[in-house]
Design goal:
alpha+beta; 4-stranded antiparallel beta sheet; 4 helices; 24% strand
């Protein structure tokens, strides 16, 4: 046994290990605003919620589309992150499970329609299984 270890009480090892563990766990925490479209969209009431209320609930839209002089659509979207993608440090190496999108239609200052869509990234993979894109046109051969 080392002479250095004889002079340090066991209580300090426990404190040191606890501090190292806490610092390791907390290093993965970061302060970034998080928007949960799935639950937050339930707070927006069609026909009742105003532009200001939507901004307070969902924040700035990711995109705005002007439909007419008095009507516009606010588009909110987010990735549906997998468990591995949420891991600090290595999460960026993994792909998202899918995407969630909310489209709010505002007429003047009031929300008149709301549409929520969620899909997995693999939903459209069936298109790659068919050769419908590579069909050759028919030729008219008159013999």
């Amino acid at each position: 046994m080392s002479t250095c270890l004889q002079f340090i009480p066991i209580g300090r090892y426990t404190l040191l290990l606890t501090m190292v563990f806490c610092l390791t766990v907390l290093s993965g925490c970061y302060n970034q605003p998080v928007r949960h479209l799935t639950s937050d969209i339930g707070l927006v009431k069609v026909g009742e919620s105003s532009r200001r209320e939507v901004m307070a609930i969902l924040g700035e839209p990711d995109a705005v589309r002007k439909v007419s002089a008095t009507r516009e659509e606010w588009i909110y979207s987010e990735e549906d992150k997998s468990l591995l993608q949420r891991a600090p440090g290595v999460g960026s190496m993994f792909a998202a499970k899918g995407y969630k999108t909310v489209v709010l239609t505002l007429e003047g200052d009031i929300v008149t329609a709301s549409r929520y869509e969620a899909y997995n990234k693999d939903e459209l993979d069936w298109q790659d299984d068919y050769i419908w894109q590579d069909v050759e046109p028919k030729t008219n051969n008159k013999d």
